[in-house]
Amino acid sequence: MMADTQHTQTRPEFTVQKTAGSQKLLDLIQTVKTSAMYSWQNLLPACGIDIPAKGKHGACPVCGGTDRFHFIDDHHHGNWHCRQCDAPNYGDGLDLVAKTNRITITEAAKVVADVLALALPLPVPKPAREITYPTQPIAESVAALMKQTVAGQSPYLIAKGLHCPNQRLLLNNSTLLPLATLDKKITGAQIIKQDGTKKLLSGSKKTGSFIALSAQEEHPDTVIITEGYATALTVNQLYTGTVLAALDAGNLLSVANAVRERWADTKIIIAADNDWHYSDELDKHGKPKVNIGKISAEKAALAVNGWVTLPPTKHKADWDDYRQKHGVERAKQAFAQGLYQPTSNKKKAVIKPNDTEPSKLTLCQMGASQRGEVLLARYDGDLALDGASETVHHYDGIVWHPISDRDLKREMVVAFMEEKLPYSPHGVSSAVDALKLQLPMMQPPERHLIGFSNGVFDLKACQFRPHRKSDWLLLANDVVFNSPASGETLKDHAPYFWRWLNRATANCENKFDRVLAALFMVLANRYDWQLFLEITGAGGSGKSIFAEICSMLAGKGNTVSASMAALENPRERALIVGYSLIILPDQTRYVGDGSGIKAITGGDEVAIDPKHKQPYSTRIPAVVLAVNNNAMSFSDRSGGVSRRRVIFNFSEVVPENERDPLLRDKIAAELPVIIRHLLHRFADPQAARCLLAEQQKSAEALDIKRGTDPLVDFCGYLIASNETDGLLIGNAEIVPFNPRKYLYHAYLAYMKGNNLNKPVSVTRFGMDMPGALAEYGQHYLRKKSKYGIRSNLNLNIDTAIEWMPKLARDNLPEE
To answer: Residues 259, 268: contact at Cβ < 8 Å?
Structure first.
């Protein structure tokens, strides 16, 4: 079944060889049958003949019967049978075209040839004598030269960072690379000098020949064709398949045709060189430059129904150049994401018998791929595919937003209804599936661009410019960016925001700047900083206003409300995909290990299990903001959560009679001023990141952690030294109980003195202490002694006295 599908997708191009005199009609019929093999499922509708799916029953296009026609196609010649037709009531695809249109087999062959967009054979002059190449002599020359080589590392490749042993080197350290064809004939050789100069051995036949990286497989699933040899070596690291180097762009088509002729169902990828140039750049002859690498690759791919991928650069580069600059892993990702199938702009018409003018195909007559092109045109061609989620995205002039398969199907149905044509769910679904195969892959958006409704602000160039489709922006806020007023300040031009922020930060200048840094993190969508924000405080302290401002900065359409449970559940995580800001609002007290928030903010791929769709994994590029009255309590003390957590405590509660119900709307009117201030204040984004790092280590953040984690609070009563001269670790079984001698006893006394339940075991105590002490910037040291394991920690008796047992305070000695 798979083979049938692949043959349908890779129908060999029909060509009629020109011969002297008129070709016999029998030869024409046989040639058409051969070329149409594996393609009748699509060819017959294009000839105006409606047929059921392969192996199904349906209406007969010959006799008009409703359910006795069976399209078999078991030998790939369009075989059919009808129990209602007069004899002969069976035949192949050509017979069906003839019987349906009441024409001869010869005329039917001409109809099919026209659908295949072929010219019928015409009398031509006697062809020139075929040129034969002396393959055997050149093979002998190559063999003789190979005997003069030694195995070693090529200096040419080493300079490119490619370490490939067993290269064949000549005496001058030039690399000798034999050329071959798919029938394993040696047709020449390429010599590459140390400086990269390349030349062909005299007598070499380049057309259709290539340099193979490995022994030829019997039937490869994928063949990748490059131009140069170094590019081939790099591509071999980026994608699984048989790699062939065609030497240059002009030979890509010949090699691709040879591969397709040998293996009809093999996937062919052209790893193109990106001969990028400026739009107004001229060549040495004064003519406009063209991207010959891309053009040649697409031409070859079109000829063999193949794929193209080229380096996503704004300068001339091949895949080896891209690998040298960005590394193998990023190149591997770009290679896969850049795969696309080029489509021809030429539209082929169907010529029916006795027609003198070509007629346009209806949607019912089109194949699935043609309907997909119609669907693409309805979106003005502005569609692309996200490789991770297999979701189609549409560019609306500002951002690329996702379109569900259901919406695409509805748009396809609208096209049918506009032409007043019948449709089937299968026909609509197949058009959407075919469309996805045609679309280019989306690229990751640039991190230095901030989208607005009227353009983007480039943080690198520090300038505002119009939107571009190639920015691949997924998000933009709703604000219109405009020029600042003369002498613009927050205090004078955004007074409501300025007063709110001063009150929320208790007029603390340092905290004022750090809150601004948090707002910049949301505005610039710096999820890549691997941090999350947590705002705590009593009701009426300004937490909700902070969340509203963040929502305005990110854009209402880019903000989603969720819970900690949603971050940890694959099914619920499907609801937060595609948003840049995830707000966890006023949730009940959370106690857990924080595995979900740790994975998302850490940039890890997480499982997504959407309803009625295939599960997948992806990274969620969003900033997470938790807003609550009571801070979250995390059981993970390994540092995975702590190093990502940025806590702000809004301690100033606004009295009820001073609260302004319109404050949110007033601040919304000041949003352009706020944004301009943030962009100016943090022209270097790292300044904002440093301020957030300071907030992580602030006293108020530590106070919050002490209030939610007993072990962290216990460490606040300890004094650390650089030597292991402190308390013995001890365990729960040691008697008498002595918290001034044993560290674990001191911990148990702390828990009991503060009426806290469930102390951790001594084993867990030893595992968690390093992380808890790290909150204070201290290290946990231990060393064996004759009395047991001794630590570097001592009790601060002055502070620990509040929970120390009375017996330990009054009677027990220190040792």
So the answer is: yes
Give the integer Cα–Cα distance in Å for 334 and 79: 44
Pull the structure tokens for residue 361: 């195909």
Using CB atoms within 10 Å of the CB of residue 245, give its burial: 0 to 12 exposed, 13 to 18 middle, 19+ buried: buried
- Second CATH level (architecture) for the domain 490-705: 3-Layer(aba) Sandwich (3.40)
- Residue 788's CB is within 10 A of a number of other CB atoms, namely 12
Are 543 and 650 within 8 A, CB to CB? yes
Q: Are 320 and 160 in contact (CB under 8 A)?
A: yes
Summarize pLDDT for 380-391 with one digit per residue, the tens: 889 999 887 789
Q: 709-810 has which CATH code? A: 1.10.10.10
Q: What angle do CA 626, 631, 637 make, to 5 degrees?
A: 100
Residue listed under structure tokens 């005199």: 21
pLDDT by residue (tens digit) across 292-315?
A: 899 999 999 998 989 999 999 888
Give dist(CA 199, CA 177) in Å, integer.
11
For the chain, the structural domain boundaries read 2-115, 206-337, 368-438, 490-705, 709-810
Write b or e for each residue in 463-482: b if 16 or more Cβ atoms lie within 10 A of its Cβ, otherwise e. Answer: ebeebeeebbbbbbbebebe
**Residues 6 or more apart from 689 whose CB is under 8 A from it?**
517, 521, 526, 529
C-alpha to C-alpha distance for 671 and 664, rounded to whole angstroms: 11
Residue 294 neighbours by CB under 8 Å, 6+ apart: 272, 274, 275, 308, 310
| Residue 748 CB contacts under 8 Å (≥ 6 apart), including other chains | 732, 737, 739, 759
> Cα separation of 155 and 169, whole Å?
9
The residue whose two tokens read 């006023």 is 586
Cα 597 from chain centroid (whole Å): 21
Cα radius of gyration rounded to whole Å, the chain: 36
The mean predicted confidence, pLDDT, of the chain is: 83
Task: Convert the pLDDT of each residue in 58-115 to its tens digit.
Answer: 888 887 777 778 888 877 788 888 888 877 888 888 888 888 878 888 888 887 877 7
Mode of pairing for the β-strands spanning 90-91 and 150-152: unpaired
Instruction: Give the integer Cα–Cα distance in Å for 689 and 691.
Output: 5
Q: Which of 184, 316, 201 is nearest to 262 (CA)?
A: 184
Classify burial at 612, counting beta carbons within 10 Å of its beta carbon; exposed 0-12, middle 13-18, buried 19 or more.
exposed
Which element (helix H / strand E) includes 402? strand 400-403
The pTM of the full predicted model, rounded to 2 decimals, is 0.48
CB atoms within 10 A of CB 814: 10
Distance CA 480, CA 456 (A): 10
- How far apart CA 283 and CA 281 sit, in angstroms, is 7
Domain 206-337 in CATH 3.40.1360.10: yes
One DSSP character per residue, 98-159 reads HHHHT--HHHHHHHHHHHTT-PPP--BPPPPPPP---HHHHHHHHHHHHTT-EEE--HHHHT
Residue 519 in contact with residue 553, Cβ under 8 Å? yes
User: Look-up: residue for tokens 């001058």?
Assistant: 172
Q: Do β-strands 581-585 and 150-152 pair in parallel, antiparallel, or remain unpaired?
A: unpaired
Q: Do the domains spanning 206-337 and 490-705 agree at the CATH topology level? A: no
Nearest to 55 by CA among 80, 22, 35: 80
For 391, the enclosing helix (H) or strand (E) is strand 391-395
Under 8 Å CB-to-CB from 193, ≥6 apart: which residues?
A: 156, 172, 174
Query: Hey, which bits of 552-664 come out as E strands?
Result: 559-561, 581-585, 591-592, 606-608, 616-618, 623-628, 633-634, 645-650
Give the range among 364-373, 472-481, 533-542, 738-747 with minimum mean pLDDT: 472-481
Q: For residue 587, which of 543, 551, 623 has the smallest C-alpha distance?
A: 543
* Coil/strand/helix, residue 220: coil
